[in-house]
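I have a small job for you when you get a moment. Would you make up a two-line entry for one protein for me to read? No commentary is needed, just the two lines. Write everything out right here, beneath this request.
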Amino acid sequence: MALLYDSALTAALGTELRQEWAGQRLEAVYFDREPRRVRLVFRDAVWGWFLHPRHGVLVKITAPSMNRRRPERGILDGRRFVERVEVEPDARRLTLYLTAESEPAHETLNFELVTNRWNAIYAAGRVRAVLHQRTGAKQLRPGTEWIPSTSPRM
């Protein structure tokens, strides 16, 4: 059974991930459409976030191989640093702000944790990659402008 995120749990998770991920070098990010998993490859650890309605968990998978030269970066253009991790109050969205060594943060990796809408979106002003294409009014696809959804309770 999947974990159900509420605002308090998302905020607590954001605090933990801020301590774990902020300032770390992100080597690669992979969107595995099935089983709807995001793999985050850091220098010293690999994390898997399953965003499927039946498997919604975040787990540390394994340590990466000793081969640091990895030509494949998944959805990233190159190595990035996690500048900061933020959670938007009451929106159940966790955002990683990514930056290169000499550039200001302009890329985000967004995790939407609203029940039945779990998703991951990689954006730099415009959507670059989407884990799960949903049907409905708001179509997220590469090239469209990234406008985060807001909670009506805000």
